[in-house]
Structure formats: structure tokens, C-alpha cells
Amino acid sequence: MSVLVLMEQGDPSQQMLTLARKFGAPLHSVEMDAIKPFAPDFLAALLSALADEVNASAVLAAGTERGNEVMARVAARMCLPMAANCVAATPGDPALVTRQRWGGSLLEEARLHSPRPLITVAPHTVPIEHGPEPVGVDIDHVRSKLDPTLLAVKVSEHVQPSHGGVSLAEANVIVSGGRGVGSKEGFAIIEELAGLLGAAVGCSRAVTSAGWRPHTDQVGQTGTKVAPEVYIACGISGATQHMAGLKGAKRILAINSDPQAPMMQNADYTVVGDLKEIVPAISTEIRNRR
Ligand SMILES: Cc1cc2nc3c(=O)[nH]c(=O)nc-3n(C[C@H](O)[C@H](O)[C@H](O)COP(=O)(O)OP(=O)(O)OC[C@H]3O[C@@H](n4cnc5c(N)ncnc54)[C@H](O)[C@@H]3O)c2cc1C
């Protein structure tokens, strides 16, 4: 018996490995990047074949967009149950899992009745503990036997975000704007502060719905899950669906005219007032100190 893990670059896969080690079996790994460009059907077929080959008692991946997408396809292909976005798991049949629902506002305990549970681990919910590293599985002999039409669904092009620069998911500092910014043009002061801090620009769904920023900038349940050292929320109320993307943020600074806004209640530091005055004032202060 062994446990098969699908690895990606970055912390979410290390967090997943921490949970995978609790299964107490030798770990075998497949790299997501082994198939380039990303082709979820092909990867799912590859994982399914390798899970049989290594007699996997469980298959785990990070609960990233790609991790969840590939594992859902593995589940459909193998007719096995999958639990997405787990924060804890106990091996067995049934395996016991605790998983996030409703964007992380609810934790559900579930039993997975399966000889081979498929599990993804919610990013930034499991503290990384180091231990035995997984052994990479040789994929070439399986890959050459797979139907090439499985490569029909693949990433065909990468388009850089319009603002370029730091990606949201990996940014150490994020300056994020909500409806309170007021307009597309209003984001000039958010971009200015982000530029001075070497930060990424984020936003709420109210902003993307209004067409002020692209969806790639959206933070939250239906946007990007972020884990910066500092998240600066400007004119964002802090709806549950927005906060679902902030669980990995170490510190939150909220700037809002409403001291009762949920974001202000959840923040480590707050400034009550008009962001159109406060944000440029912070930028000026940073410039003066340089
Ligand atoms: C299924 C589903 C999924 C969703 N997914 C997401 C998601 O991924 N991400 C997301 O963000 N939302 C998501 N939403 C939407 C979410 O519920 C909220 O509607 C949204 O987050 C609100 O955005 P906001 O905070 O910018 O706007 P608002 O809630 O309107 O808040 C604006 C804030 O700005 C403050 N403000 C106004 N003017 C100023 C000023 N001059 N200076 C300072 N402060 C000011 C106000 O006091 C207020 O707190 C989702 C909703 C659903 C139903």
C-alpha cells in the first residue's frame, strides 16, 4: 500500500504533503508540470493508471484550481468519491475528513466509504511540517500508452494580467480595492500605493462585476485565495465570500469609512475614513521617507 500525491510548485502542495504523511504509508508523487501544457483529462488518466500501479490506498492533491480540477476528473474516471478542500483527514475505510464548505464559512465532517479516497487539501489551512519526501513515480511507460485525444482539453495560451508585475496568489503584500474606490479610474491611487510597496493589486467581486478590474484581480471564494504577509483592504466591506479568500493572510489593514464593516472587525489594524484621502496620504508618507 502507498499514497499517491499530485505535486505543484508552492506551499499548498507542502501543506497537502503534511496531511498525506498522516496516512502512514510510503508516498509516491507525480508532478503536475510533468504534462505541459496543463491538460486535466490526460493528467487524470495518468494519475488513475498510476494509482492502480502503486496500489494507492489514497490519492491527494492540493486544493488549488488545478488540483481540484484534475482530482474531480480522476473521481469521475474511476467512479471513486472525492472530498475537496479538506483541512483534516484520518485514514481508514471509511476515511474521516473535515472539509470546508460555503467558501470556508462551514466545516463539514464526512466519511468517505472507499478503498481509495480522493482528497484535496484546502490551501493555507494545514501548517507545514517537514518529513519524508515522496518518491517520484516513473510516468513515461504509462504516458506513452494513453489516448492522445485526452490532450484535446489543454491550456492553449497564457495571457499576462494587464498590470503585469506580482501575481496575487504569491504576493507578499496586496493592496486591494472594493466598491468604495468608486470607479475604474479610482484605482489609480490603489495602483500607486501597490507600486511603492512592490505589492499586487487585488479587488472584490463588486469591482469585477462593475468591470473596473479584470476577474484575475478578484480575491475570494470565486476569485484567488491569497496568503500575503499584509493585505490592505480599501473600501471593502468584508463579505463572507471575500473573506474566504483571505484565510491565509497574516495581517489585515482595513481602510473604511464605516467602523462597523465586517472587514474592520476582522482586521489587525484599521483606519476609519475616506480612502481617497488616506491612500494617497500613505503613498506620500512612503515617498517622503525614501
Ligand atoms: C456565490 C457568491 C460568490 C461570491 N464570491 C465573491 C468573491 O470571490 N470575492 C468577493 O469579493 N465577493 C464575492 N461575492 C460577493 C460578496 O458577497 C460581496 O457582494 C462583495 O464582496 C462586496 O464587495 P465590496 O466589499 O467591494 O462592496 P460593498 O459590500 O458595497 O462594500 C463597500 C465598502 O466600502 C466602504 N466605503 C465606501 N466608500 C468609501 C470610502 N470613500 N472610503 C472608505 N471606505 C468606503 C463601505 O463602508 C463598505 O464597507 C460573492 C457572492 C456570491 C453570492
Tags for this entry?
single chain, 290 residues, alpha/beta, 8-stranded mixed sheet, 9 helices, 13 strands, 28% helix, elongated, binds flavin-adenine dinucleotide
Description:
The protein is of the alpha/beta class and 290 residues long. It is 28% helix and 24% strand. The protein has nine helices and 13 strands. The chain has helices spanning 11-20, 40-53, 65-78, 140-143, 188-197, 205-209, 240-243, 262-266, 275-289, and strands spanning 2-7, 27-31, 56-62, 82-90, 95-101, 106-112, 118-121, 135-136, 173-177, 200-203, 230-234, 251-256, 269-272. The strands form two sheets. The protein has an eight-stranded mixed β-sheet, with helices on both faces. Strands 10-9-11-12-13 form a five-stranded parallel β-sheet. A hairpin with a 4-residue loop joins strand 5 and strand 6 (106-112). Helix 2 (40-53) packs across helix 3. The protein is elongated, with a radius of gyration of 21 Å. Flavin-adenine dinucleotide (FAD) is lined by residues 178-180, 204-207, 218-223, 235-237, 239, 241-242, 245, 255-258, 261, 274-276.
What is the strand content? 15-25%
Number of strands: 13
Element pattern in H and E: EHEHEHEEEEEHEHEHEHEHEH
In whole angstroms, the N-to-C terminal distance is 59 Å
Question: Which class of secondary structure composition applies to the elements?
Answer: alpha/beta
Helix content: 25-40%
Provide a brief overview of the structure.
The protein is 28% helix and 24% strand. With 290 residues, it is α/β, with parallel strands linked by helices. The termini are far apart.
Topology:
Blueprint: E1 2-7, H1 11-20, E2 27-31, H2 40-53, E3 56-62, H3 65-78, E4 82-90, E5 95-101, E6 106-112, E7 118-121, E8 135-136, H4 140-143, E9 173-177, H5 188-197, E10 200-203, H6 205-209, E11 230-234, H7 240-243, E12 251-256, H8 262-266, E13 269-272, H9 275-289
Parallel strand pairs: 1-2, 1-3, 2-8, 3-7, 4-7, 9-10, 9-11, 11-12, 12-13
Antiparallel strand pairs: 4-5, 5-6
Bound molecules: flavin-adenine dinucleotide.
Flavin-adenine dinucleotide (FAD) is lined by residues 178-180, 204-207, 218-223, 235-237, 239, 241-242, 245, 255-258, 261, 274-276.
